[in-house]
Amino acid sequence: MEKTGDVEKIKYDFNTAANLELFMPNLDGWYRVTPRDFRSFNGKRRINNIDYNGPIYHYATNRRANKSLFPKDKIVEYNWVSKRRPGEDLA
Q1: Which of 11, 18, 44, 76 would be a feasible disulfide site paired with 23, CB 3.0-4.6 Å?
Q2: In a domain, 86, yes or no
């Protein structure tokens, strides 16, 4: 059987076992999160109470995101749109 879906290993540029936190301005505080959320958050991030300014990736991918193109203090998502072949009817 052929593998489909998420087959590429997600890369992490930090220690995933550390205390990973995001600053949530609407809740006015720091909150502990998973490594997957941490690497995709476009806002204040810190590891073990030290500010982190590393790269931001689209959620669940290894594609780097441009911070200025996405909303501040949100997780950057990758919006993939399927392109149908000419004449294909999926309805």
Answers
A1: 44
A2: no
